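Annex B, item 7. Sequence and structure tokens for protein A, then protein B.
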Amino acid sequence: MDDPERDPAGPPLEPQDEVRAALDAFYAAFQDLDLAAMSRVWARRDQDLCVHPGWEVLEGWPLIRESWRAIFANTGFLRVAVLEPRIEVLGTVARVTNVEALVTVAGSQVAHSQVAATKLFLRTAEGWRLILHHGSPMAHQHRVEELGEGPTN
């Protein structure tokens, strides 16, 4: 399998390590606000699903791509830490759950939030590709403040 995340000169990766590389590529694209890189992570099928926190279910790559374009266009800065990743490989499908600790800047606001995320990856001829991303807000971990101000209670 030709996988762009894998070093062809290195030893073959275990499936769990391949999925971790695909997960890392997703979060690199997300944090870098890079639509081209995000496009390479997804399988780009009509059946792919995406649920951003607070959004309706998006089905099919064209709608999913547009959602990422809109998110990236309206985000000035983003940092994400991937907490508690759990990867389970089930043949040609892998399930990943984790918590996203996010810091975003949009306009004059800085938002600190955590999102419970679930992803499904499908093993394809091109490597592991995302077919489902679902993010659920963890409201008790959400804080918004004006730029230039410290945290408030």
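Protein B:
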Amino acid sequence: MNKKIYADFSYLILIAATFGAVMVLGAVVAPTIFHSDRILIDVTLNKYNSGIIMGAVFHKFSYWLYVVAIAVGLYEAVWYKMGQRDAIAFGSAASVLFSSLMFSAVYAPKILVMQGLGMEATQSDTFANIHMASELDFKILALSLLVLFIRRLMLLRIA
């Protein structure tokens, strides 16, 4: 058996796990934290404190996204250097790379800084715009991960 298959499957697992994490964070964790009043008894978190908790979760997830960005960059660079170029895989990998780095290095830190300034800063138009952009970036990341996973799976079957 070719040892390359282990790298390919590890890469696919990394992509699939990251897609799963993005989906769970966006569809399960965030709504649960921001609607904690439905779960907690005699304790209510306001939107600001819920945002602080969510910010801490995304800050920790950002470290994983750095690992993913490095892995995607290295794996796709090796495929490119071997002459196995695919426009869909390249485009989706570039999108994963850029959206994960934008989320981890730009949006999450800016949101955390603004949260550190207090509740007034999180109610500004600037914060709302940054937050909206980060949500859009997270959706682009999810879609890009899905496309990359499916395309790489298809290319494995062809090879």
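Comment on protein B: The two ends are 14 Å apart (CA to CA).
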